[in-house]
Amino acid sequence: MVEVTQLGTASSVQPTHRLNVIGFFCPIPVAEAKKALATMGQGQVLELWADDPETLHDLPMLIDRTPHHLLSIEEGSGEYRFLVEVAA
Questions:
Q1: What is the fold of 4-85?
Q2: Which residues are catalytic?
Q3: Could you report the per-residue pLDDT of 59-79, keeping only the tens digit for each?
Q4: For the chain, which residues make up each domain, given as ranges?
Q5: Do the beta carbons of residue 72 and residue 5 sit within 8 Å?
Q6: Which residues, 6+ apart, have CB-to-CB distance to 4 below 8 Å?
Q7: pTM, two decimal places
Q8: Is the dihedral of CA 53, 82, 58, 70 positive or negative?
Q9: 36-41, long-range: CB within 8 Å, 24+ apart, which pairs?
């Protein structure tokens, strides 16, 4: 499990794609992340911004069911930043 850290203190990986689902609640953040990941190539990195606390549980559960890698989760001011690397 990836530890939630303070915003700005985690990974220095540069995302190749960004998805902002601030203001949307379950199931939208995870459904949109799943769609985005399906269009991305191996080694690309998705940066997902969300403010639904359920995403802290739901997104890691989605990633656990895929070959992708959850690189980091950061939190600041009620917003969450997830970095996901796409696997083959």
A1: Translation Initiation Factor IF3 (3.30.110)
A2: 26
A3: 999 999 999 999 999 999 999
A4: 4-85
A5: yes
A6: 56, 73, 74, 75, 80
A7: 0.89
A8: negative
A9: 37/66, 37/68, 37/84, 37/86, 40/16, 40/86, 41/86
